[in-house]
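ugh ok fine here u go
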Amino acid sequence: MKTIGIIMGGYSAEFEVSMNSGQVVYESLQGSEYRLFRVILERNNWRALDDEGKAHPILSDDFSFTIGTEKINFDGIFNAVHGHPGEDGPLAGYFDMLRMPYSSSKQFASALTFNKAECNILLSSYGFKTPKAFFLHGFEAINEGEILAQVGLPCFVKPTRSGSSIGVTMVKEKAHLAEAIKTAQSIDHKVLIEGQVKGLELACGVSDHSGKISALAVTHIKPKNEYFDYESKYSGASEEKTPADISAEVYEKVMRMSEEVYKLLELSGLARVDYILENESDPVLIEVNTVPGLSKQSLLPQQALYVGISLQQLFSDCIANTLKSHL
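structure:
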């Protein structure tokens, strides 16, 4: 029986979101062919939980731990750490050095996609439509007139490297721009400012769990707030419809675009690509998520269930494909 660590937590503001995702993975895999341990990552406190919830310190030199006299080494890792260090590359590099299989994208792909500005610059160079954007590196003087001349109002001010809409502000008036930038900079000194794209909010999950890259489904998100913010994502303040009620032609276009993005960026495991559908026919790519939410209210699990894939099957297949690809 293979021993699998389901890692969750992390060092970012997405800690609780990650804990929820990891717990769903753990519960969904009960009764599977794997010996499972939850692994919680906090700064200077990596620990594995046994089935009774007792914590056992993880050794960073080989990511092992001991129960009694038994030393336990993992055969593979299911990554449910949103944000730093699980979604932005460091853990991928660590596991690569240990030659330990893990379920998410490689180090470079993770770092690139987590940097929204750099990722969208690359994707736009390949012909994908992205929002009008202005990038602040964190050391330059802020020229509000120059920013708004580029992106217009309303606009969205975002930390370049963050997730779950944490630190994101919708700005409707120039007077609120400086405070929004300050809020974003409290998360990341690099800030992305994007012009609003009006249209339907769409999300498409993509996976290679079957051994083949395949889009799952397209979901239409109807946030009760003005946009798909943290509350909308995790407090039920949104309505999601899978499949999205859009034309068959546009639905297929979003599915194939998402697969193309996945291949182009050389992603692995579960991913989600988010769009705004402009003019009911033109998908504008907003961002790529390489460790998408996996809680019961998250989008990708909903999409898997819609196409007839149970969460146990989805996660088990991800692990099997991970182990196979590292042979």
